[in-house]
């Protein structure tokens, strides 16, 4: 019986040491937007109208709604990184979540232009060029 207790105690000590030695996975949250995403971005809605996203170091504005670190509740800006995507206001509620963003290049009018891509929903990608083009570049992967 003593040997069994000693064996269990040794296992507990070994597992305890291993658990403390493992690096903790940190999901850093910040209120500073990445430089690559900053600027004013436009998505054509049709009939001469545009969705506008303006990103500054500490503010994200989407169609006039502003999100900053000093705001409260769902308008308080939080920035998380997930792979190559940045999440603004990650939330379990889809209405409060601003979606995932990254920049890439897209062929527009015969040359590659830098665009902001917003992923929000299943298979829906909204493409925001940095200039107003009266053409919709957004797409869906799953229909």
What this model shows, in words?
By secondary structure, this protein is mainly beta. It has one domain. The strands form two sheets. A seven-stranded antiparallel β-sheet has the order 1-6-7-8-9-10-11, with no helix packed on it. It has one helix and eleven strands. About 9% of the residues have low confidence. This is Extracellular protein. It comes from Lentilactobacillus parabuchneri DSM 5707 = NBRC 107865. Keywords: Signal.
Mean pLDDT equals: 82
The biggest beta sheet reads: 7 strands, antiparallel
Overall shape: elongated
Helix content: 10-25%
How many separate helices?
1
Unreliable stretches (pLDDT < 50, length at least 5) are 15-27
Number of domains: 1
What is the beta-strand fraction? 35-45%
Distance between the termini: 64 Å
Sketch the topology as an H/E string, one letter per element: HEEEEEEEEEEE
- Output the structural class: mainly beta
Got a strand count? 11
Strands in their spatial order, largest beta sheet? 1-6-7-8-9-10-11
Report the radius of gyration as a whole number of Å: 22 Å
Can you summarize this structure?
This protein has one helix and eleven strands.
